[in-house]
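Many introductory courses stop at the sequence. We go one step further.
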Amino acid sequence: MLIRRRWWLLLLLAGASALAYAYRGPLLLQIIQRVADQRLAEQPLAALPDGLHVGLCGAGSPFPDEQRGSPCTLVIAGKQLFVIDAGTTAAANINRMHFSPGQIDALFLTHFHSDHIGGLGELMLQRWGTAARTEPLPIYGPIGVKAVVDGFTQAYRQDQGYRIAHHGTAVMPSSGFAGQAITFAAIGADKRVVLIDQPDLQIVAFSVEHSPVEPSVGYRIRYKDRTLVISGDTRKSAAVQREAQGVDLLLHEGLAPQLTAVLQRSAAKAGRTNLAKVFVDIVDYHTTPEQAAQIARDAGVGMLLFNHIVPALPLPGMQSLFLGEAPTIFSGAIKVGIDGDFVSLPAGSKAIELSSRM
């Protein structure tokens, strides 16, 4: 009797499997529909607690990196969404983190190296098209930002016409296309410029040292009682340490020279002398993890999070090699960033909450 029951159970399971296989198309469509309904109904900004939130929509550099796209940082202050830099993966990763480019209130550029602006055209287009924006994206940057924005606008001008012709101006209002460059004046080495100054929000730009890339800036952001400094690309900078005094989170670039030296030697052995020279040159205008740790220690920051990771770290254990002696220099929380890292700084608290949105 027990054998018969097992036999019938196997037949029933086989029949159910065959039925599911026969109807796999409709079943899969139902699943997809449910996921799409849930995804498009999400209100991620509304779901976040009041505070300052920082997400890595690009923790990498020009180096190909499976875990890190080109530079891009989300900053959420209350219910306002800002983006710092727009690398080539910016729009895709913002979507992967379940935010919408259509929600972006403003973009801030640190400088005009290609890896920091390569995704600007796509980001402007998606902001326009996914939310029927009627005004262009405000894009803050140092002198030179207008030329960058105008160039991407020109490159996407034909696409603008295609979108409007296909979808109509109710979906694609012509007034919302592209970006509006907002240039701030040159900043002296020991100076800063306040870009946004509201009761609960202040955004300040300050010069950093990335010569021959000039101008190049970092940003300090305060929302209520929580604070953040973004270094931008720079060698070890007194300005970063000055602005980072007592902040909750320091998001700092990092280059590990002992690892780029490996690549330099390999390039030289392969006869790729131009590339070998690049690996030598990049060391002098970036900050080592140990130097960033010294800044974090001396400024008394709450957490040190690395971005613009150079080089890529594809193998287990390479994060420790990248950090070197940094954890012995700075005793606070320290992390080598990857795409999707998300730090929440709730208002009225000292909490620093780390999660992933990918």
